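Replying to the earlier thread about multi-chain prediction with a worked example.

Input:
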Amino acid sequence: MQTKTTARQPRKLAHAVVERLSGRIRRGEFKPGDKLPTESEITRAFGVSRTVVREAMSRLQAAELVETRHGVGTFVRPGAGRAPFRIHQVGTATLNELIAILELRISLEAEAAALAAERRSKADLATMRRALDAFARQVAQSKDAVQADFRFHLTIARATGNRHFADLIRYLGTMLFPRTRVNSAQLAGEKRATYLNRVNGEHEKISEALERRAPEAARMAMRAHLENSRERLRRAYRTMLQS
Amino acid sequence: MQTKTTARQPRKLAHAVVERLSGRIRRGEFKPGDKLPTESEITRAFGVSRTVVREAMSRLQAAELVETRHGVGTFVRPGAGRAPFRIHQVGTATLNELIAILELRISLEAEAAALAAERRSKADLATMRRALDAFARQVAQSKDAVQADFRFHLTIARATGNRHFADLIRYLGTMLFPRTRVNSAQLAGEKRATYLNRVNGEHEKISEALERRAPEAARMAMRAHLENSRERLRRAYRTMLQS
DNA sequence: AGTTGTATGATGTATGACAACTTGGAGGAG
DNA sequence: CTCCTCCAAGTTGTCATACATCATACAACT
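Result:
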């Protein structure tokens, strides 16, 4: 009963159906808005059971390639084929991977700081202030102030008025969060405190530039802050390898 | 038989199961590496058929929250809950939306140009040259040289050696491609030619900076190029509204 | 001890039936 | 003739059952 087309790899039939259908969508054989064949038609065409077809449909839906309306059919969604941006890190967090992501952050946050300096509202300054205070408080309690740190950066991104900056920076943040925490955990006692205080000082410089509505100063301060971060990262890894 | 928990909205049972399971995963009740209950257990727990459970599983897989191994079970993937970055534009392409995306591009490509000026290989210069030639050729044939334009920018992104720059810029490019084409189609004849020649000149300036390994010059040239793009966009929309 | 066989439980697929929903058109009321 | 109602056909959503395939643990055999 089964056709020879996919007989080689009988495991994951649904996967094969997904591949072929999504291929035809991306290739433009099914254009956005088109109604693609009914489940029973696909069943006949591919020689698989409806179970498999439904599983495949489910995946296409999850990929936001199609949209199915109960009792009507499934349709190709407008803007199909645009894969979202994602960072495919290959498990191992190499130093180079982290630095690559940091380069992206430098690029984005430097510009974001400049834009925010022009556009920030008083409310933005207030939430920024709260983040900075929380940071200082956490440092005093010998905690890793990672959350407050992130909130500070995110507030600046939001102050640009361009939500894409905030979205992207948050995404990048979630990517390298677990690791930065590990890194700061490497340091202990005195060193850790001085390190965090220096970070705090850099944050204050950025904040000050935003208050003064000084775009170029903000850009430079943010760039310096993140480049210092990069250097700290390099050093941390070197000492880690030596121990 | 059915529990009251989701009886209100009997449509999309699978969706409900997905919500509850993904919620428990994000909430940390199921940690990465954990094996979550078998399909029959979930069937009993939620009072739905195995069909629904499998549909839910399928979506969780597609979302890369879990991974199922045949004959063993389904496990929570490490790094679950990190949604990829995507631009949620709501159909209508307002001017502000396009400018917001362009701001991102400015931020990224300016830095990319600077990095590429330091790191570019001779091969990079060659492919850049090819893109520029193709651009000029297309302009001579009165075609919209969008593809060649994009290839030029993408080559620079790749020359940074940081693949994330290339990935992101390509993503942004696919976002605003259809529209830029529309815009350049607005212009006709003489104006279009002078416009494209000016773009070509700006490209050449960037290229020259990359050859000279002059990071700051490359950064400024790229920034000027894209800011000009932004102004052209503003003008095009203004004239469009008047007609 | 080391290998093989087998039992068990898990996911993958097939099949048939019915429920819920949408749409379009037949048929009656005005 | 027009409009409304209602139903019938077609499609997706859900259920139930059975069997196939895979992975693992443990018993049995050499």
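The first helix of chain A runs from residue 13 to 26.

Feel free to reuse this layout for your own posts.
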